[in-house]
Amino acid sequence: MNHGMSRFIDHYIRSEAEKARADRAEALAARFAERAPRHDREGSFPFDNFADLREAGYLKITVPRAFGGDELSLYELVMLQERLAYGDGSTALAVGWHVGQVMHLRTTRKWPEPVFAELCRAIVEDGAMINTFASEAASGSPSRGGRPETTAVPAEGGGWLITGRKTFSTLSPILDRFVVTAYLPDEECAADFLVRRSDRVTVVETWDTLGMRATGSHDVVLDGAFAEPGMRLSGKGADDGAGWMLHIPACYMGIALAARDYALAFARTYRPNTMDKPIAALPAVQQTIGEMEVALRSARSLLYEAADRWDKEADRRPSLKPELGLAKYAVTNNAIKVVDLAMRIVGGTSLARSNPLERYYRDVRAGLHNPPMDNAVLATLAASALGETPED
After folding, report:
1. Which family does the entry's similarity section mention (predicted)?
2. Given a cut of 90, is residue 2 above it in pLDDT?
3. 83 exposed, middle or buried (CB, 10 Å; 0-12, 13-18, 19+)?
4. Could you read off the pLDDT of 11-56 as tens digits, one per residue?
5. 353 is a domain residue
6. pTM for the model
7. Residue 141: inside a domain, yes or no?
8. 258 and 86 in contact (C-beta within 8 Å)?
């Protein structure tokens, strides 16, 4: 494809099919961008955006073709998620957990096949969605290895009764089923269970945050919620290196791209009455734009390279964790920097609630608190470096 003077966001498109998909995601993003200020202000869940995503077939992009999905690659998932986040970070991050986890289940096959098949059919036919609720106030992020305080005890006649409270439960307002991590006192181990929403499940609207205000990441309280006999999910299966979690940096890259483009448009058009040209002509502004480009382009190349390697090197996926972690670290930290530089170009008006940069500035900070966290990535990279065998 001849890009010529095409937009920077399009540089990683490799085919006409990818271009068509990207265009569809962009059309959705434009609609989401119009609604984003209201959902951000209210902290309300964007049901309207999810109706549009379902209608557009977006919820099934990572479902295997065998079940009627698109079975997209990780590279393509990153490309589409980036574009959705360009319009609304909250919606992109929230739907990313769904499409990402479906991809994870597809590559690991860690669920019993009939359970996975039923989920896939429900996604394709009814627009069902999935997420895993693992975080708790006492044990913190599950990525840090805390034991869940949520418990699962055998129910009479089979199945389990699950009791506990989960935090950061993204998509909770809309899900009719979800996975919970619970501790089994009888077996002294933790396991995942697929639970359907019932009167034993309550969403407590606790999500009132600085950024990502429309992800619906409320607390979910389970009071003896029932998990059917076949719904204890083994968690065994292939190790896919958790490549699916690149949906997270893809989201923050999308926000950074939106901030960059806003600042560029401002610099090209804003002309104070002391100047005969727009501020883009000022060397100081060009210098700041150059700094933005270094941060953005270097991080974005790491993101796409990591996704591409994960797609192509299926047998090496577990050993790609350092690269995947590096992509997340570089993107989230550089995205924060890019939004900051964009605001310096735009000046004081970027602080106004009516200015999208103000929302990007708050949303982009959330990336630091999505897994893998910075210190975990640095530890992985250090272990990888120290584990190298030097040549004799």
Report:
1. Belongs to the acyl-CoA dehydrogenase family.
2. no
3. buried
4. 999 999 999 999 999 999 999 999 999 999 999 999 999 999 999 9
5. yes
6. 0.96
7. yes
8. yes
